Amino acid sequence: MAKKHQAARPLQTPSSAYTSSTDTGLSSLPVSEEKISALRHQLLTWYANSGRDLPWRRSRDPYQIWISEIMLQQTQVKTVIPYYERWLKALPTVAALASANQQTVLKLWEGLGYYARARNLHQAAQQVMAEYGGEFPPSLAGALALRGIGRTTAGGILSAAFNLPAAILDGNVKRVLARLIALPAVPNRALPQLWALSEQLLDPQQPRDFNQAIMDLGATVCTRHHPVCLICPWQTHCTAYNQNAVTDFPMTSPRPPLPHKQIGVAVITDDQGRILIDRRKQEGLLGGLWEFPGGKIEPNEGVEECVSREIKEELGIEIEVGTRLITIEHAYTHFKVTLNVFNCKHLSGEPQPLESDEVKWVTLDEIDQYPFPKANSQIIDAIRRQAESG
Ligand code: SF4
Description:
The protein is of the alpha+beta class. The chain has helices at residues 33-50, 62-72, 77-90, 94-99, 102-109, 116-132, 140-144, 151-162, 171-180, 191-201, 207-221, 239-242, 303-315, 374-388; strands at residues 260-269, 275-279, 290-291, 294-296, 318-331, 336-348, 358-362.
């Protein structure tokens, strides 16, 4: 474990300078020292009484805190806890993670989504071993040099592990600050101002507790849809509340509808009842995970026709497309998919990884050893149900 830093000390930040903006109007919202000190005191008092007891808060080990911070990106606490506990049992140290193979890492992450996080964690652990002797670097520049660590994650780790005064600005914090000052802009268009405010508010004596407290405030009181202002420690200073306009903040911009892709998928079996799976290329969405082969249905193409064509292009084999096994709807951040999954028989040809990193014939008993994306796990369940019903 790296050395602990008992007292907070000044930290250089990438852009500490306050960027005023007439667009956002934030420059005309002075936050006095007196108000800052009241906000800190109110938040820390509330946190001492109402803060959540979370597994990673009982640790000062930068590695454990780092794992939690990466898992918590875009993912709720209750989802993260079992993954976090399982991960630390399997890979208890940065050295264990660095020397693990990628399939083990992806299997532990299976179901959490945003798999680039796991691949980056793995590579960053190797960086920590190679460049920092296995100790997480206790500086903002060092943390930011690690793969997959941005400014808010760096701030979360450095403050929680070393009590360093590094500010954070995750989705929860953006929302709380936007309401606190009634930010007259969409938060993502006022990031320099929000970073400056987060730094200004951060308690230099207790950055660890302050950052945890503001995250808790956003997660449990100042929530997106149902803020509970009546029990909020910042109620008296909150501009949105005092203007009776909480639901107007944070401001949002209209989102275009998500594109929807129709995909044909093949569950190909051979004479021995084995199933063909392939491993996606490292780059891009779901890189390194296994899946059932298939691809996008072209305009004016039938789904069976698509499955047959895709398998020939991806694997160089001929198949017979049989009955529909299951249809799965799944949403990613930037698009939605419908997976039209068909039972298929292998007819001829040796499967080759023409558009993937690897192909494999596996039995139903072996298939659980491989990491699959969530939607593909539903396909495995459907294959099992079908096998059980004969
Ligand atoms: S008073 Fe309401 S809107 Fe303001 S910070 Fe507290 S919970 Fe959020």
